[in-house]
């Protein structure tokens, strides 16, 4: 495995007495797609928010290229993120969204056209976001994440709601990004969504690490994995 871009050590988030992320240590390598897998309520979003400096760990830490997110001098060149809430104004065009983001982050305006092209939105770039399908909004979110030419992409459940064609396109995009040397950390609660394109997997449940390693190794122990994932199915926030 090449040098990790992300290193988490003893990462923990508590709400009151409850540990939502519980003493997690893991690494994310460059040049690979790492799937963060776990049922609803496992702590995936909380984990990703801590990586991105949006939530403070109760203990432990998570470093990107050796620094916490908030101490990175130029974060958009290190990591681009696609979280649930894109926050796109429906009456603004894709191009205008990106132009404003580029200006705020001191990114050359020419990047807007480049990223729109890369996510196949160039032809619709001047249309208002309210006219976009879910898949197009996801691609715009990806374009925004790519503006700063990051070395890592973080995506929280990006397959949710996408049709098979949209999923196929996104898998190809993320695989190409990793093949070009980038690191991808993508969360999902469905193994079948990620097993076709992930290299590494980190499985969490109730905030704890259940399994981690090369997907092929983890799947080789498929009886264990199936049992684990079956145990996960139907679990989540409603459990005692
Ligand atoms: N601000 C908060 N205060 C209290 N509890 C919280 C807070 N944020 C998240 N939680 C709880 O932490 C647990 C993990 O939530 P999280 O959203 O990280 O899980 P997830 O794995 O991303 O699940 P999902 O797939 O449903 O998004 C849930 O039980 C959730 O209710």
UniProtKB/TrEMBL annotation:
Show the GO MF annotations.
ATP binding; ATP hydrolysis activity
UniProt keywords (A-Z) are: ATP-binding, Nucleotide-binding, Transport
Domain ABC transporter, by residue range, is: 6-231
Pfam families registered for this protein in UniProt: ABC_tran
Q: PROSITE patterns from the entry? A: ABC_TRANSPORTER_1, ABC_TRANSPORTER_2
Q: Does the keyword Ligase apply?
A: no
Taxonomic superkingdom? Bacteria
The UniProt entry's sequence similarity note says: Belongs to the ABC transporter superfamily.
In its UniProt entry, what is this protein called? ABC-2 type transport system ATP-binding protein
The species this protein was found in? Glycomyces harbinensis
């Amino acid at each position: 495995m090449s040098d990790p871009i992300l290193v988490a050590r003893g990462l923990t988030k508590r709400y009151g007495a409850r540990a939502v992320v519980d003493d997690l240590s893991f690494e994310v390598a460059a040049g690979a797609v790492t799937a963060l897998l776990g049922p609803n309520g496992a702590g995936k979003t909380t984990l990703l928010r801590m990586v991105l400096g949006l939530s403070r760990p109760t203990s432990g830490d998570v470093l990107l290229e050796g620094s916490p997110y908030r101490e990175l001098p130029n974060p958009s060149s290190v990591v681009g993120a696609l979280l649930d809430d894109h926050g796109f104004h429906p009456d603004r065009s894709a191009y205008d969204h990106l132009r404003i983001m580029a200006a705020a982050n001191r990114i050359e305006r020419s990047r807007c056209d480049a990223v729109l092209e890369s996510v196949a939105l160039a032809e619709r770039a001047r249309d208002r976001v309210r006219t976009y399908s879910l898949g197009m909004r996801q691609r715009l979110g990806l374009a925004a994440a790519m503006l700063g030419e990051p070395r890592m992409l973080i995506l929280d459940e990006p397959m949710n709601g996408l049709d098979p064609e949209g999923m196929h396109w996104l898998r190809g995009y993320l695989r190409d990004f990793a093949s070009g040397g980038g690191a991808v950390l993508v969360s999902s609660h469905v193994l079948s969504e990620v097993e076709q394109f992930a290299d590494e997997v980190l499985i969490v449940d109730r905030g704890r690490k259940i399994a981690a390693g090369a997907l092929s190794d983890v799947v080789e122990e498929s009886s264990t994995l199936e049992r684990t994932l079956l145990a996960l199915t139907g679990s989540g926030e409603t459990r005692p």
